[in-house]
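Trying the structure run again after the queue cleared.
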Amino acid sequence: MGREGLAIGQEWPLMDIRQRLLAAFDLEHKEHLSAIRTALREAEASGDAPDLVDIHRRAHSLKGAARAVDLPEVEAISHRLEAAFIAVQKGEIPLDAASVGVVRRALDAIEDLVAWSLQGGGGVETAGVLADLDALAGGRAGSVAPPAISPAASPADRRPMRERGGDADSAALVRIAAQGLERLSETASALLPEVEAQAGLGEQLRKMRQEWRALDRAWRHLRVQIGRDAVGEMGAGALEGRGALPALMAFERRFRALGGALDSAHRSHDRLLWSMRRWGGSLQQDMRRLRMLPAENQLSGLGRMIRDISRAEGKEVEVDVRGLEVEADRTVLQRLKDPILHIARNAISHGIETPAERLALGKRPAARVTIAASVEGARLRLRIEDDGRGLDRAAILRKAGERGLIDADELSTAGEMPLERLTEFLFHPGFSTASHTTELAGRGMGLAIARREVERLQGNLTIADGPGGGTAVTIEVPLSLLSQRLVFVAVQDQILAIPSADVVRLRTAAAGTLFSGVGTPMIRIGEEEIPVTSLAALLGMEAPVVPPAERGLALVVVRAADRRLALAVDRFVATRETVVTAAEETGLDAGRYLGTVLMDDGGPALVLNIPGLMPLPGSTLPPPARPAEEATPARAHILVVDDSITTRTLEKSILEAHGYRVTLCVDGREALERLSEGMEVGLIISDVEMPRMDGFALLQAVKADKRLAEIPVILVTSRASDEDRERGLRLGADAYIVKTRFDQNELLAGIRRLL
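Done. Tokens:
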């Protein structure tokens, strides 16, 4: 028993030491590989010889470090690399394009082997690399190097660290199921808005306290008046003799007790709210930290995947992955893998040339793909660049013309088309400039899928020319989906939210300084002139009247990539950390909205997608204001009938954001009463299941009334059966939309068709 306990006790420290050594080697080998690759790349670009002494030293260090952490495959490759560079130093073999190609493949194999040892995955083929190195060095490596071992066929003791079972875990670590962590995160996220909703109760208590004080002042005045009247009419003892005085005193005692109870409740609520915010906020932050991982944890295998894709296409690619030490939510990182690979496949298939083509163009045979991760504010930014042929503008325009995305007039002046608009064509499903379909490209779906997934992460994806040629794709997503800090603003009678990561600053400016010039109003911030427009006008609502020159305007300066725009709003409301329900879950247009958040009254507020709303360069901004004498444009009036405050408020927000005037009713009976009173509407949108009068009964009543029968009716319901759909259409519904498949664009298209 004693020996067994001792053996087990000794195993933990040994495994812990190996883990620490592997973690240190992971950092060390990356530094060596990066330095060797950079030296070779710079030598190719300049034509000068690289620092062979430093490269040899790094290969030697890799060999020794690999031996220390028991990675014989890495040791074998490093040993042969060392021998090859000794031969190059002695002038026995040339460092030409073929030799550099062998070295690069060896460096890639080392990177893949280390990644396998830490994270697992498919086996790494090393026999071919070792044979190429032996041929390059001419047998100078000798027989001391370990034999090549394929991890795919390794015995149990050669499994990667993460597959060796619970004995490899440190006593300080606990494994939990990912699904359990997700549920805990969702619970923590749901707690935050509930805590904030308690602030509304505090406001109600404050108003009750104010009302009590007003009553107290009135009571004091009334008590004096009662006393005077009693003395004047019946004498000083009249009240007491008739029993009124004791009753008044009892009433006052109860009244004072009520005031004290209100004070106590208000203080207790404030104290409990402070405590809930403190501990709820701590739980939220702890959950956020628990879910945050270095990007390397999920994205470190990208280099190997991209190299495999390029080899399958007969192309040579050197992958440079940087900044993977930045941290982001585990789910965000996992879901970014596919978009990055779609973008990489697109670059390899369309943008990167074959080695022969690159040599003919004066480029080095190996193309370069750089993936750089960084954090800007509360957003993770990924930039994927290549040094290939770049965007084929002529092919893009030709395909856009063939698909009817631009007309002949636009095509004739396409040379002036802004790059941002040109690249938008690439995101249309089925759009491809490939001449034929391969296993990797030609279907035109890769970029469309990538953008859709990024939008589901409440982010955006853009394409631009690379700084030195080639193409650059930028992805920006929130660091965490648990919650976001939002800036709430009022626009007409709506509350809208803007992610604080998109906000440069909030500013108040005198209207006279903006509207006194000709053309687009501008505001100067620092050395930059920023255009100004109304957020209401940008959303398609009625533009506000030009304000008096002395009036202060509330401006939200927002950014998208390198562009800035100042949005005029009615007022600033609040800044709050809260959970955003993604646009796809509510059927919103992800190009305009990131999703919704719940307000204190239980209704939703729309969260704006600023990059999606930002007008393209060269396009005309909507007028920020209209003259006071200009007639208010007529707006179609829509009646929305739904017993759910969330649904009707969401529909109202969407419709008003598209320029419609909206009236809300909570059920069919209220709607019918309003219509019977003479309210004129152009269209009715109704739920089916409602108290008092359901949607079917409302539809039947409307169609039976000669005055109302011509009003179009759209039923929006969760009842998806064919029987219910047929019943609605038989009763006269002009459209039937199922909530579970609710699509904002489908609803708006139906409205436009009927109006």
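The longest helix spans residues 178-234. Worth checking whether this holds up in the mutant runs.
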